[in-house]
């Protein structure tokens, strides 16, 4: 991680959150719709603690604070929210790290399933954002989510990182079927405090219309900007690290019967991470049909970072925690290469019955690990052959994403590349497919 400049240090130190303050009664929908000089930027729609809530972040030019307003799309007055729209004031706001704008966090709650909502954020001082739509979808049945490795906007990809990220995200949304959310596995930007890079990462329309979850990468951690831009649910104040000038915090959420746990792998205190995972699973595991763990530093990649000291420490610490909590799938980035492991046991060893095939039946305590490559084409790493955990590795230096389909019976992870040819709506090409199911306790019938 690069050293912070003096200016970045000063900027981060004065960017501590300030309590949200009440705004005057919100402007009418007509006023909000008519305000063409809105000073709202970087609006981000994010997952909530469960399917009935969504979190939001945005930047404003004035003193911070304000509100989110929302209503069912069927209740719009033309393209404007009705005067009796639901509203909620900011839960947190403060001066942003660039010392020019203010960050704002708020939540929408008590959302109904299978319903399209419209929302906007802002205040009387800053105006309101354009009205945007999202669909809560049907949770609990068959569903899916999308996973992306390192966009790393600003790292110097060709034609450029922002274009590559937009292409891959759009291609994934075209490939998937109403994904519940998308999941970015860290290094959203190349320079932790660079506001322009965040603006490029958040430029695609989908960042306002499809909920997202993020994992913090080593390029994100060295500034409060990550925490300001992403309003994550259930963030731990005791696990996952954070400081006056850094971002962090482990967190969790539940969506469509899947328990998602995120840890900040930049924090080297693996005992704290283990305690967090143990506590979350003990309290919420019985609500989940599957459990997914996400963090940035892949412990089972097939590229050069697999030999890093911090990765080796994680590779020693994570498998026993994953096994005792019956984590089904672990997703990570960092190494800019695609890799799938065999099913792995509590000692970090290949399960004898596991192979590189499509169907993988797991017993309790067995876990599969996926490493996601760059989603923008920012950079790629060299392949390291012969590693014991490699079931399938693809190293074509092409941006990719993974589509995970969820049912009561299985998790199916299909990974696609997005070639550079084909314009902004590039077609995706499947490069790997694996389905994880649980071994049945029932005896096979005599006919089988």
From TrEMBL:
Pfam families attached to this UniProt entry: Metallophos, Pur_ac_phosph_N
Signal peptide: 1-22
Recorded superkingdom: Bacteria
Keyword Cell cycle: no
Domain named Purple acid phosphatase N-terminal: residues: 44-136
Keywords tagged on the record: Signal
Annotated region (Disordered), positions in chain: 415-448
Keyword presence, Amino-acid biosynthesis: no
Domain Calcineurin-like phosphoesterase: from-to ranges: 145-338
InterPro entries per the UniProt record, alphabetical: Calcineurin-like_PHP, Metallo-depent_PP-like, PAPs_N, Purple_acid_Pase-like_N
Compositional bias per record (Basic and acidic residues), positions renumbered to this chain: 435-448
Name of the protein: Calcineurin-like phosphoesterase
